């Protein structure tokens, strides 16, 4: 189920986006510009690198121009769009349902099952709460609750 760093690298390559790992200041985990993504080589795990790469691919798909100045509202909106793109790619509603079907319990296990770090999972859940409210129906078969997190099967 997890998408993973290697899968995202291949996706970037297919889409004509070059990805490089370079040591950068600790506050910078990744950057995107002109069809090039830089990932901070100091990031300790492939799981976290995958989350960062997904967000930077989100910039490729959803943003334009220089948005480094996050004091500007439009730049913050573009940053949010890129993150939301990443959340929906790495923590799709289908993945939450598959985890439920596999008997996954708790947020730590869910993050591990989906191949994301826990903080990324938490932010993805907040994204879905903003998008859908407290719950959403998936494929007319499941109710996914976001607070508390859970899945319930719907019966006819």
From the helix content, strand content and strand pairing, which structural class follows?
Answer: alpha+beta
Would you give the CATH topology of the largest domain?
Zincin-like
> H/E series, N to C?
HEEEHHHHHEEE
CATH first level of the largest domain: which class?
A: Alpha Beta
- Architecture of the largest domain in CATH? 2-Layer Sandwich
Describe the structure.
Residues 12-125 form the IrrE N-terminal-like domain. InterPro entries: IrrE_HExxH. Pfam families: Peptidase_M78. The protein has helices at residues 5-14, 46-62, 73-90, 93-101, 106-114, 118-132, and strands at 18-22, 30-33, 36-40, 135-138, 142-146, 149-153. The two termini are 28 Å apart. It has two domains: 1-71, Metalloproteases ("zincins"), catalytic domain (Zincin-like), CATH 3.30.2010; 91-156, Orthogonal Bundle (Arc Repressor Mutant, subunit A), CATH 1.10.10. Helices cover 50% and strands 18% of the residues. It contains six helices and six strands; from the N terminus they run H-E-E-E-H-H-H-H-H-E-E-E. The chain has a three-stranded mixed sheet, covered by helices on one side.
């Amino acid at each position: 189920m997890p998408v993973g760093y290697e899968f995202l690298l291949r996706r970037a390559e297919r889409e004509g986006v070059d990805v490089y790992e370079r040591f950068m200041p600790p506050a910078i985990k990744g950057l995107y510009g002109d069809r090039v993504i830089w990932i901070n080589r100091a990031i300790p795990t492939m799981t976290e690198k995958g989350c960062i790469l997904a967000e930077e691919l989100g910039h490729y798909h959803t943003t334009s121009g220089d948005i480094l100045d996050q004091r500007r509202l439009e730049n913050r909106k573009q940053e949010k769009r890129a993150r939301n793109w990443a959340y929906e790619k790495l923590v799709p509603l289908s993945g939450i349902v598959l985890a439920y079907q596999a008997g996954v319990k708790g947020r730590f296990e869910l993050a591990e099952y989906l191949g994301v770090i826990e903080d990324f999972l938490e932010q993805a859940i907040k994204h879905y709460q903003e998008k859908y409210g407290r719950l959403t129906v998936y494929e007319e078969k499941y109710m996914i609750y976001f607070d508390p997190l859970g899945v319930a099967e719907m019966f006819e």
